[in-house]
TrEMBL record:
EC number assigned by the record: 2.7.7.7
Top-rank taxon: Eukaryota
Protein name: DNA polymerase epsilon catalytic subunit
Record's keyword annotation contains Transmembrane helix: no
Gene Ontology CC annotations of this record: epsilon DNA polymerase complex
InterPro entries found in the cross-reference section: DNA_pol_e_suA_C, POL2, Znf-DPOE
UniProt family annotation: Belongs to the DNA polymerase type-B family.
Pfam families hit by this protein: DUF1744 (PF08490), zf-DPOE (PF22912), zf_DPOE_2 (PF23250)
Domain DNA polymerase-epsilon zinc finger: from-to ranges: 340-395
General function of this protein: DNA polymerase II participates in chromosomal DNA replication.
Length: 412
């Protein structure tokens, strides 16, 4: 069927066949589609991953340094120090890739260039635009999903501080000549200088202010009693600043001093999980179709900075009712998975074949494959999304599931 559609596009210029091919992945991946088959979906995902790996290998062979790769986008470093050279490199890279028959089905294009990039993951990054347009050139964009727990004015100051850091670094680099731009030690020295002279004082002032406001902040964070906002602020700031290897030692020392201010032990041990920054868990809704640009994309509703859910391609707003319906379905599946899960032996990890037998053949007890704490944490994450975006039906469903779970534990 696929080959006949491609043939019809090539010879007959059939627009309907073209739309079917473009949306083929959507039909094969959507469980509500008549074309959906789990084995076909798994085979398709394996082929897509292999193609991505081949594409990454080809780009690295041509001189690009890959920073991030997914099915939707690739972020790479050209290792060039001027915009014209970077554009020439990317254009020659795309021409070389398009000549390869294996990549003929891919549609590759340039989104934008950046002169400085601070990258942790797809939900936490900041960069300085590099553009021929004066309005865009030098503009700083920042998104930090890791700071979602730090709400309001504190989060804004955190983002402004990080944006100011890379903005000052960019202003200094503008005055460098070609040889100085290639000198990594010189750039590292100036990064340390900015951190010492501009950022450290701001961090100490904000941390001291947060300690004073801690009772008020705890009152605001009633839905998450274990959340310590001053500690979370320190973890986020130090995690972002330590991305630069040249700043690691200085940031570690700074972190120890900040922890002393909020009355936490400055030394990090394995038992002190709350002192170690843990990436926020994502809640990804896959293959959401946009009726405006006719593209389907994945949406992380937990690490979403915006108050609205928008398409990653055209920024069109998704209906809240659609997101709420998908999250309710996700909650229902989580509940079913937890209720119908297997038991496994704590020692030999063998799956229990008979639920009436309390012990394994090796005389050890069985345990759940899905931990109760993990299940409750997942429900709490969904509930926080419901509260943030005022999804009343979703909040009611989550509360009902949690109440049923707690009642079941009391009966046992």
């Amino acid at each position: 069927m696929f080959h006949r559609l491609v043939k019809d596009i090539h010879y007959g210029q059939n627009l309907i066949a073209d739309q079917l091919v473009v949306n083929m992945h959507r039909w094969l991946s959507n469980p509500n589609s008549l074309l959906f088959n789990p084995s076909i979906k798994n085979a398709l995902n394996i082929l897509m991953k292999k193609l991505c790996l081949l594409l990454v290998a080809e780009m690295q062979k041509l001189g690009a340094k890959i920073i991030f790769c997914s099915f939707k986008k690739i972020i790479l470093s050209t290792e060039r120090h001027s915009l014209p050279l970077a554009k020439s490199f990317i254009n020659s890279l795309l021409i070389s890739i398009n000549k390869k028959p294996i990549f003929a089905s891919l549609q590759l294009g340039i989104i934008h260039f950046s002169v400085i990039l601070l990258w942790i993951d797809s939900s936490n990054y900041a960069y300085v635009y590099a553009s021929d347009e004066e309005k865009k050139n030098g503009r700083v964009e920042a998104k930090f999903g890791l700071a979602n727990k730090i709400t309001g004015e504190i989060k804004n100051k955190f983002i402004i501080m990080i944006a100011g850091f890379i903005g000052m670094l960019w202003n200094k680099k503008k005055g460098f000549n070609e040889e100085e731009l290639k000198d990594r030690e010189l750039i590292s020295e100036y990064s340390i200088k900015i951190l010492k002279e501009e950022i450290i004082d701001s961090l100490f002032r904000l941390t001291t202010k947060l300690v004073v406001l801690r009772p008020k902040l705890e009152e605001m964070a009633k839905e998450n009693a274990s959340l310590d906002i001053p500690l979370e602020f320190i973890n986020c700031a130090c995690r972002v600043l330590s991305v630069n290897p040249a700043l690691e030692d200085l940031v570690d020392n700074l972190r120890s001093q900040l922890l002393l201010i909020i009355q936490k032990d400055g030394t990090i041990s394995k038992s002190q999980n709350n002192l170690i920054w843990i990436p926020p868990s994502p809640i990804i809704l896959e293959n959401i179709f946009c009726p405006k640009c006719l593209q389907n994309s994945d949406l992380d509703v937990n690490n979403n900075d915006d108050t609205l859910f928008v398409c990653s391609y055209c920024r069109n707003e998704y209906p809240l009712s659609l997101i709420e319906e998908m999250l309710i379905e996700r909650t229902s599946k989580m509940q079913a998975s937890f209720a119908l899960q297997d038991w496994k032996c704590v020692s030999c990890k063998k799956i229990g074949a008979n639920f009436l037998i309390p012990y394994c053949e090796c005389s050890n007890k069985f345990e759940y494959t899905i931990k109760q704490e993990k299940f409750m944490n997942n429900l709490d994450m969904v509930k926080r999304v419901a509260i943030k975006h005022k999804l009343e039906n979703l909040e009611y469903v989550v509360n009902h599931v949690k109440q049923c779970f707690m009642n079941n534990r009391k009966i046992r």
